[in-house]
Amino acid sequence: QMADPFLYDSGERSHYGCLGHEVQIEHIKAYVCRPSFATDKAVIVVHDIFGWLFPDIRYIVDLIAGHGYITICPDFFKGTDPWKTTDHWADFADWMRDHDPMKVDREADVVLKYLKEQCGAKKIGIVGFSWGGMAVHHLMLKNPQLTAGVSLYGIIRDSEARYNLLNPTFFIFGEKDHTISYDQITLLEEKLKQYCKVSYKIKVYPGQVHGFAQLKPEDMKPDDKPYIEEARKDMIDWIKMFV
Asked: Which residues form the Dienelactone hydrolase domain (predicted)?
């Protein structure tokens, strides 16, 4: 039995008035937000288990677009159901088998092609949260078209090959994340030191739980707010450094 990793009820979230629009790209839908000026820089946002429609992830897309990037969140679940608050955690392992964060390559290629050919993007970064953080870790090992990545509280284990990143990657964790142990973060650090030939960074934010960095301002607790804002600034600074 897996504990519920989110402290809020995703069914009761405030409705976020999105700034972007939805598009259909080949077999997937996506949410896109563009900055107010023309740019050849883009960022792909990979959603968590709650999917591409979840207000928090669209808030992040709009936030990154505000920093001058064509920002896109594709539906990596390809129209299938995301995890819902009414689902039972006993079924989570089965759901994960059908929604493997390491089987995102085809969708990533479709989105990269769209960004390059339809949006004129020359440099493309990627950020992902939880499930999406695992997908980013995987893609930064596989896809050289991604200039830089930020993986937030998503970790892939159990293979030496998983530490040989192709391009600069930043790993963000919450200190109180009950889904990722401190040992796993330490192992990641040791293995990256050993195998990784590109820039990387690992940072653990004090007192923060799983999912902390994508909360909208009205959902932040005052004690957590500085860490949430710092994590977001760090995420955007990393992207700005390379993309």
From this structure: 28-241
